[in-house]
Design goal:
The protein has about 110 residues and is of the alpha+beta class. The protein contains three helices and five strands, in the order E-H-H-H-E-E-E-E.
């Protein structure tokens, strides 16, 4: 049984979030939690909250055991960019793009129960 959780409009660039997402892809839930708790990157905290949300979804909606879950898929896609203007010399301007991310986390069972 697949369990999904989504995090949209995270105000961190997708490139930076993918570094942390790659650390936990394919890992059991308990191990992924420990990795995220001790990772120093800024994206680790929102991903930990997303993982806890997915675990809560699995327990509440599907009565699944937390010890029997692993991260089958984690996708980090690009969200909309916030465009800001930065003044430069001689009346020119540069555009700063503040990037956002959409993260999708999918949990699955290690041993399928019927």
């Amino acid at each position: 049984m697949e369990v999904k959780a989504k995090l949209n409009y995270l105000r961190i660039a997708p490139r930076k979030v993918r570094i942390v997402a790659d650390l936990i892809r394919g890992k059991p839930v308990k191990e992924a939690k420990k990795i995220l708790q001790f990772t120093v990157k800024r994206a680790a905290k929102p991903l930990l909250k997303l993982l806890n949300s997915a675990i809560a979804n699995a327990k509440h909606n599907f009565n699944l055991d937390e010890n029997n879950l692993y991260i089958s898929k984690i996708l980090v896609n690009e969200g909309p960019k916030l465009k800001r203007v930065f003044p430069r010399a001689r009346g020119h301007a540069d555009i700063i793009q503040k990037k956002t991310s959409h993260v999708t986390l999918v949990l699955d069972e290690i041993k399928k129960e019927e």
